[in-house]
Amino acid sequence: MKVLWLFAHPERRSLGGALRDEGLRALDDLGHDHRQSDLYAMGWNPVVSGADFGHDPAERLVVGEASRRAWESGRLSADVRAEQDKLAWADTLVVQFPLWWYGMPAILKGWFDRVFVKGFAYGVTDPARPGRSLRYGEGRLAGKRAMVVVTAGARESSLGPRGINGDIGELLFPLQHGTLWYTGMSVVAPLVVPGADRAGDADFAEYAARLRNRLRTLETEAPVAFRHQNRGDYDDDLVLRPHLAPGRRGLGVHRAE
Predict the structure, then answer these.
(1) Angle at 18 between CA 94 and CA 20, to 5 degrees
(2) Superfamily of domain 2-223
(3) Are 52 and 76 in contact (CB under 8 A)?
(4) Spacing of C-alpha 169 from chain mean position
(5) Domain ranges in the chain with CATH number 3.40.50.360
(6) Which residues contact 93 (CB under 8 A, 6 or more apart)?
(7) Checking DSSP bridges between strand 92-98 and strand 129-133, what pairing results, if any?
(8) Do the strands 125-126 and 129-133 form a parallel or antiparallel pair, or are they unpaired?
(9) DSSP of 120-139, one letter per residue?
(10) How far, in Å, CA of 13 to CA of 22, rounded?
(11) Would the pTM of this model clear 0.90, i.e. be above it?
(12) How many helices (H) does the chain have, and how many strands (E)?
């Protein structure tokens, strides 16, 4: 595998930092190539601006179209192009972060905002069906795999289907389905590390072993069975057809049974 490890934690000596180091060692031991984007260490700028696209500040900024033009003409800022080059090189993306306020740290959200520009990661149409977007299982990033590694302060039971914090699969839905799967990447089940603030040496050893095992099988692990947009499950208004998951609502209906 060629792995891009995308890491967003401000403290390299944290449990997350130790797991990142363990994961990179595991990839070396397994003979895989890897590159890394340690966003805090890089001082990554998470804020989208016209400067990303060489945009004339006297003109109104329409981010989608400005980003597409800049991507097509090679005018994206150097830091964005460098991250796109890493992702283009990789066949697998590992996204690691602590769960803060039910989502990603702002610096990581800003990486996706700036790097996943129109034309590169979305806004791709099917030449055989003009006007039909290639997304949710198709698109420019199809063929790549992705895995989320997330540390959380909450206990494991509270991140379950009836836990007060909500089911972790639904908390990660915007990233796993709405970002990674949307752009075409196949997404395997996340590795979730609960109780991270209270973890001791034995806990670290357990989760380091779990991470190594997941990386060992990452190439062959069956991905989450998210539904494809363009394979008949959705009607022309992109609504799930009534005979699928009948009587059910919510995010779970977008996973095939």
Answers:
(1) 15
(2) Flavodoxin domain (3.40.50.360)
(3) yes
(4) 13
(5) 2-223
(6) 3, 4, 6, 87, 144, 145, 146, 147, 180, 185
(7) unpaired
(8) antiparallel
(9) TTB--EETTEEEEE--SS-S
(10) 12
(11) yes
(12) 8, 8
Q: How many residues does the chain have?
A: 257
What distance in Å separates the CA atoms of residue 21 and residue 12, rounded to the nearest whole number?
9
Helices (H), the chain: 15-29, 39-42, 63-73, 78-89, 106-115, 168-171, 173-175, 201-216
How many other CB atoms are found less than 10 A from the CB of residue 208? 19
Each of the 257 residues of the chain gets a pLDDT tens digit; together they read 999 999 999 988 898 999 999 999 999 999 999 999 999 999 999 999 999 999 989 999 999 999 999 999 999 999 999 999 999 999 999 999 999 999 999 999 999 999 999 999 999 888 877 778 899 999 999 999 999 999 987 677 777 788 887 788 999 999 999 999 999 999 999 999 987 678 777 778 889 999 999 999 999 999 999 999 999 999 999 999 999 999 899 999 999 97
Task: Give the C-alpha separation, 181 to 185, whole Å.
Answer: 5
Give 121's contacts (C-beta < 8 A, 6+ positions apart): 115, 139, 140, 141, 183
Q: Encoding tokens for residue 195?
A: 């109780």
**Both tokens assigned to 18:** 């130790």
Q: Work out the end-to-end distance of the chain between its first and last CA atoms, rounded to an integer number of angstroms.
A: 29
CB-neighbour burial class of residue 253 (10 A; exposed 0-12, middle 13-18, buried 19+): middle
Extract the tokens encoding 249: 């609502």
